[in-house]
Amino acid sequence: MKKTNKILALGMVAALTFTGCGSEDEEFTLKATNNYKAGENGEVYVYNWGEYIDERVIDVFEKDTGIKVIYNTFEENEDMYPIIATGAAKYDVVCPSDYMIQKMIDEDMLQPLNKDNIPNLKNIGSEYLKASEEFDPGNVYSVPYCWGTVGILYNTTMVDEPIDSWGVLFDEKYKNDILMIDSVRDGFMIALSYLGYDQNTTNEAELNEALELLQKQYPLVQAYVVDQVRDKMIGGEAALGVIYSGEAIYTQRENPDLEYVVPKEGSNTWIDGWVIPSNAENKENAEAWINFLCRPDVALVNFDYITYSTPNTAARELIEDADIRNSTIAFPGSDILDRCSTFKYLGEEVETLYMNLWNKKSN
């Protein structure tokens, strides 16, 4: 899942105490339970999305385990994949998205987790493990890290009707006031869901019908964006925008006129999870890393930093801000999630078909 690069303070974390790894301008509050020297127990090579962890947590992990972290980042699943596939660089633990995890499983690029080494897995909610089984049956290869939904953000001062359907994005009365997501799978998901089709369809006739809808929409769209939707909506530059749920939480704090909805036709629930590549040389240390990030207080600190929803139910209970803890944006109930599903890997041929059709939307 594409993430935006940002550092946000939502004030959700209760005061703990830890000194020695915090920033100079704010107290960092996470405790290490041991006092190892980094590298005393070996290394772990970590590959993650950019700005997808509070990096001070890494210092605590090193102190807690004696394992030295070599940490690098990527921007897209498709950037990460060839690095792992070709062995251009060897990583012990990686954080792909749902459909990419499925692809890596299918291609024997991952090794099964030893869950005895991940006792904190008990903190991951059963509903998130169940959702992960759509791409990792039995949760053999992955542990959920962050998740969210895709929906519509709208300005209540610019929209004079209830919003509950993707159909509003195809309404001519909002011409030049629509921010459409610049993402192949998300874009087709919207059109396919509105038409009543499976967002993971491989039916070319259904995809062509979705393309026709996107082509009719094209003249109505002010811009195709991902990161920019946040600032444009906060600034009142558009009435409607497609956005990831983690971004919606922030935009509402900046502009109380904004509301977020997951349309009635259904949407995408994305999940990013930790996996261990087949060529990993430090498997037990990778499992120690995953186990550490499943610790409730660690997951809470990362949730505060990232703002994308945590699947760690024990961490959610530690959130002091009731508005965030009970937010239906951050933690939607079954009434919303039951009409959502995750993306699946559809094979190279179908993925290419999606891309080729997407490139025709302006025709």
Describe the structure.
By secondary structure, this protein is an alpha/beta fold. It has two domains: 43-147 and 269-331, Periplasmic binding protein-like II (D-Maltodextrin-Binding Protein, domain 2, 3-Layer(aba) Sandwich); 148-267 and 336-358, 3-Layer(aba) Sandwich (D-Maltodextrin-Binding Protein, domain 2). The protein is 34% helix and 16% strand. It has helices at residues 56-65, 77-86, 98-106, 126-132, 184-195, 204-217, 228-234, 245-254, 283-293, 296-306, 313-317, 322-325, 334-337, 348-358, and strands at 43-49, 68-74, 93-94, 143-155, 178-181, 221-225, 240-244, 258-261, 267-274, 340-341. The strands form two sheets. Strands 4, 5, 6, 7, 8, 9 and 10 form a seven-stranded mixed β-sheet that branches. Strand 1 (43-49), helix 1 (56-65) and strand 2 form a beta-alpha-beta unit. Helix 7 packs parallel to helix 8 (245-254). The model is unreliable at 4-26 (pLDDT under 50).
Write the SSE topology.
Layout: E1 43-49, H1 56-65, E2 68-74, H2 77-86, E3 93-94, H3 98-106, H4 126-132, E4 143-155, E5 178-181, H5 184-195, H6 204-217, E6 221-225, H7 228-234, E7 240-244, H8 245-254, E8 258-261, E9 267-274, H9 283-293, H10 296-306, H11 313-317, H12 322-325, H13 334-337, E10 340-341, H14 348-358
Parallel strand pairs: 1-2, 1-3, 5-6, 5-7, 9-10
Antiparallel strand pairs: 4-7, 4-8, 4-9
Helix pairs in contact: 5-6, 6-14, 7-8
